[in-house]
Design goal:
Layout: H1 3-15, E1 29-33, E2 41-42, H2 55-58, H3 91-99, E3 101-106, E4 109-110, E5 114-116, E6 123-124, H4 126-139, E7 144-149, H5 155-160, E8 166-167, H6 175-178, E9 181-190, E10 192-197, E11 213-217, H7 221-228, E12 234-238, H8 241-250, E13 255-259, H9 260-269, E14 273-276, E15 283-290, H10 294-308, H11 316-324
Parallel strand pairs: 1-7, 3-7, 3-8, 11-12, 11-13
Antiparallel strand pairs: 1-2, 4-5, 5-6, 8-15, 9-15, 10-13, 10-14
Length: 342
């Protein structure tokens, strides 16, 4: 290992945020399985209630779910549409129940979303709370959840190879991805934005990036946007967005292009950097699943419908938002509304 590689590894290790004192929603027993092997880490057990199904769910009672409709042509305007909620049990849900555990692809390095708290060793964040709610709905109280750390550019492959049942990892819904995997309805709205040192002359996603080294994660929406228009910048790609923050701090990159939700969390880790300009895209995060698992898509949408709770202040979504995101993104008033294709 080179000196630079050792420096990157060590600096990345110390960048993990200290989040002592944060309240965490009730959780299921879980373990984290690293994507590239290594020992599993036990996570915390707990309990938590998911509200009972709403009237929307009862539209498709047991045994009455309609045949799957022909997929409409995906466009930027309808990409966030998904299948209507249902509690019917098909092959995918039955497989998870028979196994007795849900396998979830997550991140363990993204502060506020999916990260291992260095003071407790527990996996926590907005995405982690949602994954546990899905597991509890399918498997009942105190379910077993196996978390697998999946790099950004391996999320789709993990679903196609069925090494995970779902991916809950700030994954943007778009048409290119929907040709390869299935998505739930949107559980969060974000947009691409530039993160750079406060002292830099970079102003936004514009020609102030000319001649600058801009970092983004391989397989991310930021990489796609920079492929379309890089404003004269040199583009660096890395496996994880946290690697971009490390490169920024080492002086190996001048700016980062990523979702503003992730950028806000990185700015919370380093007071010397800030978001620049305005978001230049509109994106929806969804839970991703294997394209053939339509019954699981409907079941996850059922969980999300309850999780949002019509945006009420005491809904699971709002509780998770207050715990993890409100400090960095105080302007959000509630969850996105679901859109359906059938």
């Amino acid at each position: 290992m080179t000196r630079r590689a050792r420096g990157l590894r060590n600096l990345r290790a110390v960048l993990a945020p200290v989040a002592a004192g944060m309240s965490v929603m009730a959780a299921a027993a879980a373990v984290l399985v690293p994507a590239l092997g290594g020992a599993a880490h036990p996570d915390r057990p707990g309990t938590g209630g998911v509200p009972s199904p709403s009237a929307t769910h009862r539209a498709y009672g047991p045994g009455t779910a309609p045949a799957e409709p022909a997929a409409a042509t995906c466009t930027a305007g309808n990409a966030a549409e998904s299948l209507r909620p249902s509690s019917d049990e098909g092959a995918a849900v039955a497989r998870i129940k028979d196994r007795g555990r849900l396998v979830v692809g997550v991140d363990q390095n993204t502060y506020r979303w999916g990260y291992r708290d260095p003071t407790t060793g527990k996996l926590e964040g907005f995405d982690i709370d949602l994954a546990r709610a899905i597991a509890e709905d399918i498997l009942g109280p105190d379910p077993e959840v196996v978390f697998k750390a999946v790099p950004t550019d391996q999320r789709i492959r993990a679903l196609q190879k069925r090494t995970v049942d779902v991916v809950v990892r700030t994954m943007t819904i778009n048409c290119a991805r929907k040709r390869q995997v299935a998505f739930s309805t949107s559980y969060f709205q974000a947009g691409q934005q530039v993160l750079a040192p406060k002292s830099s002359g970079i102003k936004a996603f514009d020609d102030s990036l000319r001649g600058k080294r801009v970092c983004t994660a391989a397989g991310s929406t930021g990489e796609s946007e920079l492929a379309e228009q890089r404003h004269g910048a040199e583009v660096l790609t890395v496996p994880s967005q946290l690697d971009c923050l490390v490169r920024l701090q080492l002086g190996q990159a001048d700016a980062v292009v990523t979702d503003n939700a992730l950028a806000a969390a990185q700015a919370a880790q380093d007071p010397k950097v800030e978001l620049k300009g305005r978001p230049f895209t509109k994106e929806s995060y969804g839970v991703a699943m294997n394209k053939d698992d339509t019954d699981l898509v409907r079941r996850v949408n059922r969980v999300l419908d309850d999780y949002r709770g019509d945006g009420s202040a005491d809904s699971p979504w709002m509780r998770a938002y207050r715990t993890w995101l409100r400090a960095d993104m105080p302007e959000i008033s509630g969850p996105p509304s679901p859109e359906y294709s059938d």
